[in-house]
């Protein structure tokens, strides 16, 4: 009888259809989230554990990493890894993997859904019909904005940003982007200043990485530069946008619309955004399709399997 490798799973992967069962079937899983005293659980079960499974929701901080003396790999479900202490992992020689590429198209699709919903008042229109106001209220909902042929700015031209840009070309858009550095392998226009990009654009889609380096990258100045008819879309991480400045810009008419799949303090959403007809709000569902979640799960499991078979993960995060 083959002994199963013991792993520590930081939290339940409820967003994936089969992940918890797949892990339980193939590994001796310490389900860390079920222990009221996490520190004691790590001390009791951590010796000999070489791999941890987590997600961007649960992360892996330095305390967890350093509590596992034999740890060699952290396999994360999802593309974001800002909640994993990469520096602590590097100092310990611990590999970190994520699940890039497999969610790119679905997240890019959702960015476009949010953009069109914001421009065409789809959320407001849907509420209007459900409330039985169609045919009863003179004038209906406000006129929306045409999407095709406009100027699209993208914050972060990585895998997802580039997929969003390609879709923009299908809408006959002029596309420019802001990155930490200019890319020589794309033909889209580059703006070194994010404020200048916002000033130029009709629509701004945020697709950059999260974490301390991009916290409040989109600030009051950027939001006001986008202007009273401008639309900002965020499918990246909530803290990239200064949410207080965002609410103020919407309320004082200096920004046209915010279409958001992520928020600064999830799952808390400011009451002002919930009540605003200038906002389209989704509950962080960028990758939430059956096809993508299964692909993410498979890649996470493949990384874990590859580590135990070869000593190396397939898709290292850095």
- How many E strands? 12
Largest sheet properties: 7 strands, parallel
Count of domain modules: 2
The shape, in one word, is elongated
Q: Remind me, CATH topology of the largest domain?
A: Rossmann fold
Tell me roughly what share of residues is in helical segments: 25-40%
Structure description:
The chain has 318 residues and is of the alpha/beta class. It has 2 domains: 6-98 and 291-310, NAD(P)-binding Rossmann-like Domain (Rossmann fold), CATH 3.40.50; 103-281, NAD(P)-binding Rossmann-like Domain (Rossmann fold), CATH 3.40.50. 36% of the residues lie in helices and 15% in strands. A 7-stranded parallel β-sheet has the order 8-7-6-9-10-11-12, with helices on both faces. It has a 5-stranded parallel β-sheet with strand order 2-1-3-4-5, sandwiched between helices. Strand 6 (151-155), helix 7 and strand 7 form a beta-alpha-beta unit. Helix 5 crosses helix 7 and helix 8 (194-200) packs parallel to helix 9. It is elongated and about 70 Å long. The chain starts with 5 loop residues before the first strand and ends in an 8-residue tail after the last helix. Keywords: NAD, NADP, Oxidoreductase. InterPro entries: D-isomer_2-hydroxyacid_DH, D-isomer_2_OHA_DH_cat_dom, D-isomer_DH_CS1, D-isomer_DH_NAD-bd, NAD(P)-bd_dom_sf. Belongs to the D-isomer specific 2-hydroxyacid dehydrogenase family.
